[in-house]
């Protein structure tokens, strides 16, 4: 039995996060229904190489908890949510959702994945901002895990 952090699972999760970011961006920009988005992405992508369950959970979970996620994010940023780029906002919502609900994923992995997605799709230095905000959120939402993680 493969453990939860085997290379194939982490690769499938990375691809799921990338697709989830694209779906959440589309949801935010076009106000597409979540059900339609999930159906579209499942039909248009080879889901054998993607953690489909993870993708579906995040794409359904972020919009369902948008208000509470935004409240948590707003407590750690220096501007209005509306001033964030759509990519930064989508990554921060995904990361916050994962910090809250995916305790099986180490907080450092969530932060790293958010930074990498922002580097790939966001503004030039957006990844630095996302890194700082997700780090603050991890210290609040994963206080015990952060306290028991050795420094690098």
TrEMBL record:
<comment type="function">
    <text>Involved in transcription antitermination. Required for transcription of ribosomal RNA (rRNA) genes. Binds specifically to the boxA antiterminator sequence of the ribosomal RNA (rrn) operons.</text>
</comment>
<comment type="similarity">
    <text>Belongs to the NusB family.</text>
</comment>
<dbReference type="GO" id="GO:0005829">
    <property type="term" value="C:cytosol"/>
</dbReference>
<dbReference type="InterPro" id="IPR011605">
    <property type="entry name" value="NusB_fam"/>
</dbReference>
<feature type="domain" description="NusB/RsmB/TIM44">
    <location>
        <begin position="14"/>
        <end position="138"/>
    </location>
</feature>
<keyword id="KW-0804">Transcription</keyword>
<keyword id="KW-0889">Transcription antitermination</keyword>
<dbReference type="InterPro" id="IPR006027">
    <property type="entry name" value="NusB_RsmB_TIM44"/>
</dbReference>
<protein>
    <recommendedName>
        <fullName>Transcription antitermination protein NusB</fullName>
    </recommendedName>
</protein>
<dbReference type="InterPro" id="IPR035926">
    <property type="entry name" value="NusB-like_sf"/>
</dbReference>
<dbReference type="Pfam" id="PF01029">
    <property type="entry name" value="NusB"/>
</dbReference>
<keyword id="KW-0805">Transcription regulation</keyword>
<dbReference type="GO" id="GO:0006353">
    <property type="term" value="P:DNA-templated transcription termination"/>
</dbReference>
<dbReference type="GO" id="GO:0031564">
    <property type="term" value="P:transcription antitermination"/>
</dbReference>
<dbReference type="GO" id="GO:0003723">
    <property type="term" value="F:RNA binding"/>
</dbReference>
<keyword id="KW-0694">RNA-binding</keyword>
